[in-house]
Amino acid sequence: MKFYRKQPLEAEQFDGSQKLVFGYSVIPSGLIDAITEKPAYYSMLVDDVCQDSDDDTGVVLEVGDWIVKEADEIEVIADDVFKQTYAELPVIPKNVAKHIVTEHGLSDLIPIWGGIYRAMIQTVVYGYQKGDTGDWIINHSDMFARAWLDGYVVEEEK
Q1: DSSP string covering 111-141, please?
Q2: Which residues contact 153 (CB under 8 A, 6 or more apart)?
């Protein structure tokens, strides 16, 4: 038996304030929650059709749900199910991303045959200064490994 992992996907947690999600309109329901005095649920206007729970492909949202976009399809996932299924990609500095293998098979600094072990060893053997790339890799080794294996997002410059 072969096992597969999911590729990264786009997801946004709905907090009740969004008017648009992935370009689709979010419409509050007419039912108001007696405690919060906010709409009990929301619907999404997809392809000019408001989908609701009576629909086979209905998209009904509640505050805290995750809206997932995969291959131009929208799916709503409850918060607890989402957190059990998905993990956020690590955010790493741009200079550290150079140490990770690219889609072409080589990083800017380390050949693919060296792998993550070589990156860590090079950092230790060649030394590093507090605050440089090697220091970040050593002090965030779990995040560096997760980024290498699962993908990553490059930190926005400040």
Answers
A1: BGGGHHHHHHHHHHHS---TTSHHHHHHHTH
A2: 89, 90, 91, 92
Q: Are 63 and 14 in contact (CB under 8 A)?
A: yes
- What are 144's two structure tokens? 């560096």
Q: Is the pTM of this model over 0.70?
A: no
Look at the block and give the residue holding tokens 């993990």: 87
**SS3 state at 114:** helix
Q: Cα-Cα-Cα-Cα dihedral of 26, 30, 34, 35, to 10°?
A: 10
Q: Out of 8-17, 88-97, 119-128, 146-155, which region has the weakest mean confidence (pLDDT)? A: 119-128
Amino acid letter, 78: A
Residue 131 and residue 67: Cα distance in Å, rounded?
37
Alpha helices in the chain (DSSP H): 79-85, 94-97, 115-125, 133-139, 141-150
Round to whole Å and give the CA distance between 146 and 39: 39
Write out pLDDT tens, residues 16-34.
888 888 888 888 887 777 7
Question: How distant, in Å, are the alpha carbons of 55, 65, 73, 116 from that of 18?
Answer: 23, 12, 19, 40
